[in-house]
Amino acid sequence: MRKRLLLRGVLFAGLLVSALGASAQPFAVGPLSAQPGQRISGFLEVPDGVDKGTRIPITVIQGTKPGPVLALIAGTHGYEYAPVIALQKLRGQIDPGQLAGTVILVHIANLPSFLGRTIYYSPIDAKNLNRVYPGKPDGTVSERIAYAITTEVIDRADFVVDLHCGDGNEALRPYAYWTQSGHPQVDEASRQLALAFGLDHIVISTDRPADPQASVYTDNTALTRGKPAITTETGQLGETSPQWVALAERGVWNLLQHLKMIPGELQPPLQARAWATVWIDKYEVLRSPETGIFYAEAKPGYAVAQGALLGRLTDLFGNPLADIRAPFAGVVTYVVATPPVSKGEPLGMVGRIRKEE
Ligand SMILES: [Zn+2]
Q1: Which of 216, 242, 88 is nearest to 163 (CA)?
Q2: Which residues surround ligand 1, an ion (CB under 5 A)?
Q3: pLDDT tens digits, residue range 180-206?
């Protein structure tokens, strides 16, 4: 009995020391080291390898009080601008003097794609950064970027948000992905992140790999390492309009409040948000059967019946190739809204609305 009490005392003292220690130590990400109360910006270097290297602009903001580490990753796809602009604004707005814990901003994960203005794929290795996690130190540049983010950012974080929007070719209505990992505590914490962020449609994803060495996606890299994570979608078509930027900004402030990293209570509370949320419990990404030109008929946010026309595909001369129809009744979350499509690429996504919550 006494031994247990003693052990408890030691454990408590240990927790106290680690909590105090957390705020008294610099917090390092790669070559950047932020003291308590400090905001620091710089680059994670991705060295040259089998192809040309790159670098990743990041900011580390360490608060003056202990708290969790929240990683916010934008620009995984380089033509998805609204979340990138949101992080530019948040960098100056998050006050380290008021912050409990640490925020890591990955401003533009995929700089080759951003500067090269490419959708989906890197202009260097033609790979999709959000399909190569956890990456490889000796792989091609997208794999080396993923490796740097896995080891320097995700491994250092307690919570991870991968901020996307419709890519340069995609019209989109805002939503978040709640990816279930099969670990109840992680999944509940991720669900709360999705609700707190505040987008009114949440897509439940259950088909992600469980192997941390083959995590494939950014959010799943965190989840397979036991860290709650979500992916958000706010914006479309290369736009930087204030309403898209504000959605991502507001979502981050909501998360900071939910995680008790800034003062104040999240309003409305999570349960009220859960009631108001449209839960999507099944979804399908429709892929182009051929290379050609796509004419969307549906718009993002449309409620569609099974078999409803989403768009028409023609060949490169304008001859009809296929009508693309909804596989089941649901909501159109995004749809390709510019002409070119290659065989196998997405044309849009339909989500089925869950009946009750
Ligand atoms: Zn994306």
Answers
A1: 88
A2: 77, 80, 164
A3: 999 999 999 999 999 999 999 999 999
